[in-house]
């Protein structure tokens, strides 16, 4: 019996999965950038940057996969949506470029570190806001005639898209933990995320002592897991 595979459905699932993974994986990167000015200058900001250093550039690959999949599988939708949202897309790309450059040059130019910190924060804020604006523009609808975009350069601009942009920015942030006060209330114990599961994915310790405890706990869990995995095939053979 032949199995019919609908490639349209498959590609739609791939694109949706790529966008979902981008929101989950890159959400905490953007959240850290948005809340970056609330961190104390020095070790606290360095810890924040170090927490995303191994993954920040790789997380954005999911966005490339989503856009490339849209171009490859749905070229008509690609040719309509992009002209309708060119301004926010360009602004989003500029924000991502600025935060990437600021991330690298922050360590290479200590004298201008405050400037690069500001660029990192503004780039993250602009990128998150523009992503919400693009989402709102797609949801509110695009004018199409003869399979081509028939709207203007600023048809995407509306109160609804501004609200969706603000909503995405708010979604990157986490509420302050109970009992916090003062400067610490401006950001949570763990860093913001695009989903509730991300704080467990990328927390960073507040002190070196907690970092050592965390590393020792991870080492113990890893050793126990390795022992179980090593003994599992032998137990399986006995059955």
From TrEMBL:
Record EC number: 1.10.3.10
Source organism, top-level taxon: Bacteria
Recorded GO MF terms: electron transfer activity; oxidoreductase activity, acting on diphenols and related substances as donors, oxygen as acceptor
Cross-referenced PANTHER family: CYTOCHROME BD2 SUBUNIT II (PTHR43141:SF4)
Protein family according to the UniProt entry: Belongs to the cytochrome ubiquinol oxidase subunit 2 family.
Lineage, uppermost ranks: Bacteria, Pseudomonadati, Pseudomonadota, Alphaproteobacteria, Sphingomonadales
Keyword terms, alphabetized: Cell membrane, Membrane, Oxidoreductase, Transmembrane, Transmembrane helix
Pfam families for this protein: Cyt_bd_oxida_II (PF02322)
GO annotation, cellular component aspect: cytochrome complex; plasma membrane
GO biological process, one term: aerobic electron transport chain
Protein topology in the membrane: Multi-pass membrane protein
Transmembrane segments: 12-39, 84-103, 115-139, 159-179
Subcellular location: Cell membrane
EC top class, as a word: oxidoreductase
Protein name as annotated: Cytochrome bd-I ubiquinol oxidase subunit 2
Coiled coil: none
